[in-house]
Amino acid sequence: MIKLAPVSRPRFTNKLALFLAATTAALLAIYLFWSFESSVRALLEQRMGADPSPSPDTIIGIVKLILIGILAYLFVRALNFLFFGLAFRLKRIDAPTLIRNIFTIVAFTILFLIAFTFLFPGINLGALFTTSAIFGVILGLALQDTLGNFFAGISLQADRPFQVGDVITVGAERHQGVVEEISWRAIKIRTFTNHVVLIANSNAAREPIEVCPRENLNARLVLFNTLYSDSPAKTIHVVREAVREAENVSTKVPPIVRIRNFSDSSVDYEVKYWLEDYAKFNDTDALIRQRIWYAFRRAGLNFAYPTRTLFVERRSAAAHRDGDGGALVERLSAVDIFAPLSVEETGMLAQAAVRHVFAPGEVVIRAGDPGSSMFVVHNGRVKVQVNENGRPRTVATLNEGDFFGEMALFTGEPRTANVVALEETEVLEIGFAAMKRVFDTNPDLVESLSFIMAERRQGLTAQTDSSTPSSDSSGSLLSSIKRFFGLSQ
Ligand code: CMP
Predict the structure, then answer these.
(1) To 5 degrees, how large is the angle CA 47–CA 53–CA 58?
(2) What's the burial of 485, exposed, middle or buried (CB within 10 Å: 0-12/13-18/19+)?
(3) How far is CA 381 from the centre of its chain?
(4) pLDDT tens track, the chain, 489 positions
(5) How far apart are CA 154 and CA 144, in angstroms?
(6) Best of 373, 376, 384, 429 to mutate for ligand 1, by most ligand atoms within 8 A of CB?
(7) 287 lines ligand 1 (CB under 6 A)
(8) Ligand 1 centroid from CA 345, angstroms
(9) In this structure, which residue's CA is closest to atom 8 in ligand 1?
(10) Cα–Cα distance for residue pair 350/355, rounded to 1 Å
(11) Sequential DSSP letters for 190-236
């Protein structure tokens, strides 16, 4: 990452040399003027005639005042440096520029007034200021903006809505950057293109200011989209993991990935993430987009761009329903209870099966509901939950190739438990008619099923308060299944 160097400033030694040169020049000028004062006065009297206006004394007084004023200014600068530059720094406090400026103005004004009263003892300054209405108006108009900025600067310092180092966005123009200085006149921000923007304090006081404090966990939103065919659960997982690892993404709060909108040709998402250093949000946003691109590549996800997709239906309804039929046959033949079935019978089951996809946390079947089908987990995982003392308790976790929902299907009783998807899960639903056909040709299947069901019932009985009678042995289950399916006993 390129680090932008701030504009170079005169070094301390240069500043000191300049200061010493200016002080020497001022002292020399004062010394010379004071030494040659009588000669200057004589020269002025000679040049200005008998009734000069202003008098040579006044002119000499003004020149002296200017020279003393310059010296006083240099003195105040030196004091300012000693006090704030050294003393404050020893205590590791960085005095705000505005405080330094106020100190300079007040100290300089005091010195100037002392010099003025000393040089012009006949003039009453108080009266001069209070009686001169025109002077007041001129001064008021001239200082209108300056004083406005000054007082707005004081209120900014008092309120401290932001500090040096914070990122702020000011006003309708949306000037955005890192605060570098708050002076008596303006707020100085460095934009993300390394430009310096000065915003007059009085303007800043009128405008809305968005502040992202340096010590705060500031968040950002990065937008992206996918095709409608890409699964939200997978997308959210993949992007969250990709973003979590990126540099400058805070580890304190995990990133949030969520669907923002269903657009014409895309599912729109946003990633909300929190930054360690908000001033680097441009780089971090870009890094996150890059990580998303690569994560998409690896996970086989697709960005959407404006498209119109024309779907032409050519397949038969059955072919459409089972899609990749080979995979379904393979899955069903791996289910232990269907192992005894012939290839044709498994194929028939696969054709009858209907695929459903569930998001993580979605309920596949609910306890107490009627049910006339069973399910095989094709992809993903589910948990079986029963109600214990009013709270859900997981009694089993079923993985790919496991089946559930057989109890209601084979006995006609209501569902005995909730089955909830633990992750994005695809299940194959097999109905009563298909199972009856299988039982007709494979009566032995009923027996192995009755064993599994008896075991599961025992599991339920052990864990629930609303117990299912434990007397349900595999023998009695076998005969009730046979009765339910109209098979010979
Ligand atoms: P059914 O009663 O139709 O609906 C809930 C399903 O949860 C139930 O069928 C079983 O398939 C399943 N189930 C209930 N108890 C257990 C268990 N102990 N282990 C595994 N699966 C179970």
Answers:
(1) 90
(2) middle
(3) 32
(4) 444 444 445 567 888 888 899 999 999 999 999 999 888 888 888 887 766 677 888 888 899 999 999 999 999 888 888 887 776 666 665 666 777 778 888 888 899 889 888 888 887 777 766 666 666 677 677 777 777 777 777 777 777 788 889 999 998 888 999 999 888 788 999 999 999 999 988 888 888 899 999 889 999 999 999 999 999 999 999 999 999 989 999 999 999 999 999 998 899 999 999 999 999 999 999 999 999 999 999 999 999 987 666 777 665 555 545 456 788 888 998 988 888 888 888 999 999 999 999 999 999 999 999 999 999 999 999 999 998 888 889 999 999 999 999 999 888 899 999 999 999 999 999 999 998 888 888 887 888 788 888 888 887 776 554 444 444 677 788 888 878 887 766
(5) 15
(6) 384
(7) no
(8) 25
(9) 405
(10) 10
(11) EETTS-EEEEEHHHHHHS-EEEE-TTS--EEEEEEEE-TTS-HHHHH
Whether 460 is in the pocket of ligand 1, judged by its Cβ within 6 Å, is yes
Residue 40 CA to residue 34 CA, distance in Å, equals 10
Q: Is the pTM of this model over 0.85?
A: no
